[in-house]
Amino acid sequence: MRITIFLLRYHYKKIIYLCGFLFLTFSAQAETIYELDFSTASGDVKNWFEAVKWEFREKAVEILRFEDGKLVIEPTRDELGVVMREFDKKDYLHGVTKLRIEWGVDQYPIGADWSGPKDKFRNTREPIAFMVFFGDTKLDSGFFLAPDLPYFISFFLGKDERPDQVYFGNYWQKGGRYLCIPCDGSSGKTFITEIDLSDKFLELFGKKQLPITALGIEVDVQKTKKVNGRYSKAFIKRVQLF
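Given the sequence above, the corresponding C-alpha cells read:
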C-alpha cells in the first residue's frame, strides 16, 4: 500500500514538473518577438539573408561567411559593410523590451579611437555592431553626404572603450548613440550582451521607446591597420528581441 501511494505521488510530481516545464518553454517562445539564429546557417550568405528579407549595403557581401554555427565578419580591406532589415509599417516591432546578442571578436581593428569630445572628429570604427532603429521620423545627420536616419542605438564590441560610456559618432549625433557592452577587450571569447531597450531608450533620449523599424549589422574598419592579412575578425551567433 505504501509503495503504491509512493508511486502515485512520484508520478503526480512528474506530471506537475512536466506541465511546469512545458508552460515555461511555451512562455519563453511566446515572448520572442524577433530572432536571428546562425547556428544552422550555411550556403551562400547573400541568398540566406535575402530569404529573411535583409539587404546588403556597401560591401558586406564580400566579408561575410557562415562558419561553425556563426556569422563571421572578416574584412580584408579597410572598408564599411552593412546588412539591413527595414520593416514595412505593418511589420514594425512593438512591445520589444529586451535585446540579447551572442557574439565576439577574434581581432580588433588597430587604429579605432572613440575617445575625445563629440565635436572632435575621431576614427570611430568597430569590428562588429548591431544597430536598432526606432520610429520612422528621420533626423538630421549633421553632414550633407550622410543620409538622415531615425533614432538608433548601435551596440558594438571594442578593445579600448568603456562599457559605462555613451559614445557619439562623427555624424547622426542628434539621434544616434553608441554603446560598447560588455567591452572587456578580450579576443576569441563569446560575449552575451543583454539590454533593457525600453529603459535604455528613455535614458538616452528622454522619451518613451518608439517601435523598432529597422535592424542592422555593421563592420567599419576604414582608416585602420591591416594585420594577419585582415583588418578585423568578429562573429555573431544569435540575436533575440523579447
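The first helix runs from residue 2 to 31. Try to locate this feature in the C-alpha cell string yourself.
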